[in-house]
Structure prediction request, 200 residues.
Amino acid sequence: MDMQSTLSAANKPENPTKLAIMAAGEKALLSQGYKAMSFRDLAAEVGIKSASVHYHFPTKSDLVLAVLKRYRADFTEHLVLPKKKRQAAQKALNSFIDGFRKRVIDNGTLSLCTVLAAEKSLLEQQVLDEIEAFYEIKVDWLATVVSYMKKGWMPTDETRHYAYQILASLHGASVLVQASGAPERFEDAMAPWRTLVERF
Prediction:
């Protein structure tokens, strides 16, 4: 295949049926989990035969990996570093928290990675690698943003530790909300991070 053909293939829009299966798969993962997700149910959701699901995604792992890759690409596309100013960094962190709340808490779910992590023993290594890569993007971004609140503007072990704590708070708060049915507890848990810049 020549360079022009390669570029054309790369720019070719995704098959609508494939995208519909991925959307249904993500929905099923969030509501049912990995083990309970059924290709037969996905086919019924999309309005196709089970064989068509297997045509696009031979295994569950293939489907979950595709969903995760799209999930990471969409997330990364909107993840922009702020200006190297303290208040801009705090504003960016608050927007990050707001985005998590909108996508997870407001929809009454857990995050896709949290759901999958609960069934880690069932997942193929390539799926686990994709989850890890997604979290590394988050950690790197958060560590950089926190570093903008401090002198030096460079991520360090300390700022990475803050990144781990922020992510743990986000995911822990989402579990708390699910268990208690009290969405307001999310903001209670995240309040200290919304004023992090004041600690430095």
Remarks:
- Confidence is low (pLDDT under 50) at residues 1-11.
- The chain is about 70% helix and 0% strand.
- The radius of gyration is 19 Å.
